[in-house]
Amino acid sequence: MKEIVLVGFGGHAKSVIDSIEGMKTYKIAGYVDCADVPDYKGYTRIGSDADLEKLYAHGIRDAVLTIGFMGRSKRRNQLYEYMKKIGYRFPVIVDRSAIIASDAVIQEGTYIGKRAVVNADAKIGRMCIINTGAIIEHECVVGDFSHVAVGANLCGQCVVGENTFIGAGATVIQQRQIGNEAIVGAGCTIKRNIGNQCVCKGTDDALTSVQMEES
Length: 215
Ligand code: JB2
Known about the structure:
It is a single chain. The protein contains 4 helices and 23 strands. The chain is α/β, with parallel strands linked by helices. It folds into 2 domains: 85 residues, Rossmann fold (3-Layer(aba) Sandwich), CATH 3.40.50; 119 residues, UDP N-Acetylglucosamine Acyltransferase, domain 1 (3 Solenoid), CATH 2.160.10.10. An 8-stranded mixed β-sheet has the order 5-8-11-14-17-20-22-23. The protein has a 6-stranded parallel β-sheet with strand order 6-9-12-15-18-21, with no helix packed on it. Strands 7-10-13-16-19 form a 5-stranded parallel β-sheet, with no helix packed on it. Strand 1, helix 1 and strand 2 form a beta-alpha-beta unit. The longest helix is centred in the N-terminal third of the chain and has 13 residues. It is globular. The site of GDP-perosamine has 20 residues, from helix 1.
C-alpha cells in the first residue's frame, strides 16, 4: 500500500483516518502538526511542516490536508501550494459510506465524509471538504477549497465559489449561486444569490431574516 501523511492532527483528522482505513488503499505513515498533539489510534508524529520535503525524499508521495476550517482560513491554501511544489499528490478521499453518482467529478485532495451524497453531474473542485451527511445535488458546482459542513444541503444546480464555507445544516435552494470566500452560517436557508465575501447569519427564512454584511 502507498504511504500517506496527514497534515494537521485534530478532530477532522480522526474522521479522515477512519475513511482512509476503510478505503484500504493507503497506509498512514503518521502525521505532521504545528502543535504538540496527542497520538491517536497508534498513528504518531513524524515531523512538522518543515520536515515535509524530507518526508517526500524518504518516499512518502501522498498527503491529505487534515486541517479543517469553519470559516476563512488561508493555511490550507498555503500548505497546498507549498506541498505541490515539493511534488506531493493529494488523492481524493471518499468514505466508504458516501454515495457518489457515476458521472460526478471530484478533484484532487477533496474529502467526502460519511453518508455524504454527491449526485449526478455534480462537480466538486480541489481540496474541498464535503463533510458527514452533506448533500450535493445534481449538477451542483463547488469551487476549490470550499467546505460544505455536516448535514448541509445544496439543492440541484447550485454553484458555490472558492474558499467558501456552508455551515452545518444549512440549505441552499435550487439554482442559487454563492460567491467566493463567503460564509453561510449553520442552519441558514438560502433562497437568493449570495455575493463574494458575504457572511449570512440567521436561522429562519433567508428572504426575511438573513442579515448580510461585507466582511
Ligand atoms: O499550519 C499548520 C497547522 N495549523 C493548524 N500545519 C500543521 N501541520 N498543522 C496545523 N494545525 C493543526 O491542525 C492544529 O495544531 C490542530 O492539531 C489541527 C486542527 O485541529 P482542530 O481539532 O482544531 O480542528 P480541525 O481542523 O481538525 O477541525 C475543524 O474543522 C472540521 C472540518 C473543526 O472545527 C471541526 O469541528 C470540523 N468538523
